[in-house]
Amino acid sequence: MQSPPSPTCSETNDFLPLSQLRVEECGSERAIGKLIQELKSYIVTDIPRMRSTVSFYVCYLLCLCLGMACVMCVCYWNAHWRGGFAWDGSALQFNWHPVLMVTGLVVLYGNGAVLYRVPLTWGENKLSWKLLHAGVMLLAMVLSVLGLCAVFGNHNHNHIPNLYSLHSWVGICTTALFTTQWVAGLVGFLLPCSPMPFRKLLKPVHVWLGASILLLSIVSCISGINEKLFFALKANTNGTKPYAMLPPEAVLGNSLGVLIVAFGLVVLKILSNPNWQRPEPRSNEATYRPLLQEDT
Amino acid sequence: MQSPPSPTCSETNDFLPLSQLRVEECGSERAIGKLIQELKSYIVTDIPRMRSTVSFYVCYLLCLCLGMACVMCVCYWNAHWRGGFAWDGSALQFNWHPVLMVTGLVVLYGNGAVLYRVPLTWGENKLSWKLLHAGVMLLAMVLSVLGLCAVFGNHNHNHIPNLYSLHSWVGICTTALFTTQWVAGLVGFLLPCSPMPFRKLLKPVHVWLGASILLLSIVSCISGINEKLFFALKANTNGTKPYAMLPPEAVLGNSLGVLIVAFGLVVLKILSNPNWQRPEPRSNEATYRPLLQEDT
């Protein structure tokens, strides 16, 4: 029976302290060979990994900036050009609709979706990030439902029919799918009552449906902004120029649409890059461990 | 030096001929062991692969059916409800716009994008499928450009400003990106003048931009159909009911929008499933071999 090999100087360090290594201390060619091997491994593995992390954070920063720009733009549009906000059934109540939908269904939703891609969240304690993901999505869902209430209230107050336009059909389907997704996520990934095969089956569906809901919410927002600008910008009403003459409000509205599309593309880029996915632990059970098991 | 092992009965067959195997002929426990091993490998590897292939073809069939439904629906809408087609600057010329954009930028584009995912195309002769992919995309691009010409011609004839709505901003960006993508694809993957590092760099960008263009084309189509229905369905014009009362044409237009969204989601599902990706050959060079090298 062979005795286990004695540790070398490079084996005693997690990181590679190149400058601290003294050949006399190690006293063998084997140590130098190992050092060269680790150096090669560093060049082959760690440099591309660092590059990938840096490019992720560039994308993530872009995602955060575009998200903030979308929220600021939609708030400014409705506060400055559409007369502000109220909750009295008037047109001022309608103004909550674009603000809440863009903030909830696009910006918060997109940020909640990419949360697991942030390397900072890859520590052992997945539960807190899982709860944050669920929390951000819950807030996004509440804002979206409030956004729908704003438009239904305004329509009912002014005897305007609900749910007739293509925009409204896509929008209501998006919110319904989002609610279903959130409830399924809660049952599948947080509550202990769901069986393991169901969770394993649910995960790819959850990921794909997540990206699809973002796509649908972008479709809803762009068609809604387009529709609103045609409704709002007509010639000879309160001295406004028609949409076709591209007054400043039209440029602002169109720019909001472009920002939303850019935000969506950046989020989908982050979601689709396999190098930016959270590394799964070796045991599948750890990944699918529900809330109560993790608590105990 | 050891002599190479003599072939066993199972090694002489590419497929596993369970029924033809005779233990007496093989004459060893090793053969039976190997048989059991291959059977296990068949259960572990081949059955999931077959399941994956079947589920791909179900999705692909759905993609083809939804694509055909989209084309039929947009043609019927414009032929039956919008008065048919002409190329004289009138409203009948405009009717080509939705037909050509939906057929080119959504249905043909989507089918061209998933072409490499069809297992039938995974043979050695990649060049013919590469040319078919480029050809389908070229046809899609030509139809899209003709679709733009239809609307520009109609607007210019009737002194309507071009490119002011959000729909038109997103639409023109989509077609411009599509053209850039097609030219970059031609230069990068078909012509021999592009260097190998450029091709390797281009491939993930080409794949991601491909999916993004589909997303943008869906956004453009939905916002365009929504806009058109608001323009076309107004009360007291030619006895038509307003959009808000959901006359049959509105239901048809909205259904077309839902079909387009469903088609897009199925295509993106096919594109995003890693199990359905074309297996890459061992040598990277074969993947990136340009047209003239493959020809020779």
UniProtKB/TrEMBL annotation, chains A, B:
InterPro entries linked to this entry: CYB561/CYBRD1-like (IPR043205), Cyt_b561/ferric_Rdtase_TM (IPR006593)
EC number annotated for this UniProt entry: 7.2.1.3
EC top class named in words: translocase
Domain Cytochrome b561 span(s) in chain numbering: 62-272
SMART domains xref list: B561
Transmembrane segments: 57-79, 99-119, 131-154, 166-193, 205-225, 251-272
GO molecular function terms noted in the UniProt entry: metal ion binding; transmembrane ascorbate ferrireductase activity
Gene3D superfamilies per UniProt: 1.20.120.1770
Compartments, as annotated in UniProt: Late endosome membrane; Lysosome membrane
Membrane topology: Multi-pass membrane protein
Necessary cofactors: heme b
Transmembrane recorded as keyword: yes
Keyword tags: Electron transport, Endosome, Glycoprotein, Heme, Iron, Lysosome, Membrane, Metal-binding, Oxidoreductase, Translocase, Transmembrane, Transmembrane helix, Transport
Any one GO CC term of the record: late endosome membrane
Catalytic activity: Fe(3+)(out) + L-ascorbate(in) = monodehydro-L-ascorbate radical(in) + Fe(2+)(out) + H(+)
Purpose of the protein: Transmembrane reductase that uses ascorbate as an electron donor in the cytoplasm and transfers electrons across membranes to reduce iron cations Fe(3+) into Fe(2+) in the lumen of the late endosome and lysosome. Reduced iron can then be extruded from the late endosome and lysosome to the cytoplasm by divalent metal-specific transporters. It is therefore most probably involved in endosomal and lysosomal cellular iron homeostasis.
Subunit annotation: Homodimer.
Protein name: Lysosomal membrane ascorbate-dependent ferrireductase CYB561A3
Species of origin: Osmerus mordax (Rainbow smelt)
Encoding gene (name): CY561
